[in-house]
Amino acid sequence: MKILGSFLTAFAVCFLITPILIFFLKKLDVIDSPGGRKIHSNKIPSMGGLGFVIATLFSLFIWMDYSQLLELRFILAALSLMLFVGIRDDLVNLTAWQKLASQLVATFIVVVMADVRITGLYGLFGVYDLPLVLSYGLSFFTVIVLTNAFNLIDGLDGLAGTVSVIAFTFLSWWFYSVGQTSFAILSLTLTGGVLSFLIFNWHPAKVFMGDTGSLCLGFALATLVIHFIDMNGHLLDVEGLKFRAPIAAGIALVIIPLYDTARVFFRRASNGKSPMAPDKSHVHHFLMRGGLRHDQVSLLLGFISISFIALSVLGSGFSDYVMIPALVLLAVLLGYRLDSVTLKRVRKRSKQTASILAKNFPIEPLLNSQDVEPETKESKPRRRTRIKSKILENIKLSDN
Fold it and tell me: Which residues bind Mg(2+) (predicted)?
């Protein structure tokens, strides 16, 4: 009853306060303007993640008893810290080092004070328990990477919300099945808040979650995934659905942000760019260039996320020696297939656009206009190419 009540309360509260939040964000000019690497064409209020985080915290304090709140006190404190960091970053851009320092403090609260950490490799390479220093280091690294990886996929209407709802829903069911009631309530309450937010964030979005939302979602998901991995590593077979490949199961839950981050970093490094240099090489950007809409990309990547989770459930009896290579290989092959199909669609659209231009935008009148310099033997082909390129560029921008 508590878990369902907390879910419904978070959903209702977020649904009620988000329109109010949108109104005040517009009044305060907390707006994400189009331009640069951004793919939206209108001014959209940002910092909307404040709605589902407040709804989640409010619902937890309403439905959880004292012992459950005590169990999650450090996690909720760290989540509140990430909320304030996100708000500050949305209002006044923080430097990368300032954000990292804040994330390290929040991670310290969860890993050291709440003792939510990866305690071993659970039999992988014959390692069951890690020394405390290595355990802390690996846990810190995991939280920071997942938090920022999730922040990177928040570049498309509904994408971050869709991926997180799928993961939180699965985690709530699993935690409940193994008797981790407090973590089950936390997971499903987050599901309720984010699901309600998606009503306003689905394409065409009325509000963006901003760093306020994406940092909190990534941090919460990283914390819950680490607890999921460690719980699986110490579960007995009789205690519920045990994944004999706990690390692989954790990877499956966050396969979209992990794959996207690894792909982007590799492409940038292979092109001689800094891995941290921003661009439009993310998976969702690439799929949109292939002709898919915002909602189609979000649904496609959501379906892929569900498929990887389903695969980890079906392979729950296999070890990490089998499941980790299987998941990595499948992700690489699927990514390669998506890239090749998308490239074919991009080339096809370019040819179709060029054909339409040839019929509807004759080049000769443009070349003969008074604004064009007198013809020479070499200037005419160059101007023709330049004019075609300019029109193509404008059409691509209007498509986005």
Answer: 151, 211
DSSP3 helix / strand / coil % (the chain, rounded to 5)? 75, 0, 25
Taking alpha carbons only, the member of 56, 113, 52, 110 closest to residue 81 is 110
> Letter for the amino acid at 111?
V
270 in any annotated domain: no
Q: Identify the three-state secondary structure at position 296.
A: helix
The reply, when asked if residue 148 is annotated as ligand binding, is no
Answer yes or no: is pLDDT of 376 > 80. Answer: no
Q: Is 339 annotated as a binding residue?
A: no
> Could you say which DSSP state residue 206 is in?
S
Q: Is 202 left (phi over 0), alpha (psi -120 to 50) or beta?
A: beta
Residue 366 pLDDT: 46
The pLDDT tens digits of the residues spanning 272-318 come to: 776 666 667 788 877 888 788 889 999 999 999 999 999 999 999 99
Q: Provide the 8-state DSSP code for 239.
A: G
Neighbouring C-beta atoms of residue 314, cutoff 10 Å: 9
Please check whether residues 74 and 212 belong to one and the same domain. Answer: yes
| Residue type at position 395 | I
Do 10 and 145 belong to one domain?
yes
Determine contact, residues 14/189, Cβ cutoff 8 Å: no
Q: Which domain holds residue 388?
A: 362-400
Q: Could you report the per-residue pLDDT of 88-116, keeping only the tens digit for each?
A: 999 988 998 999 999 999 999 999 999 99
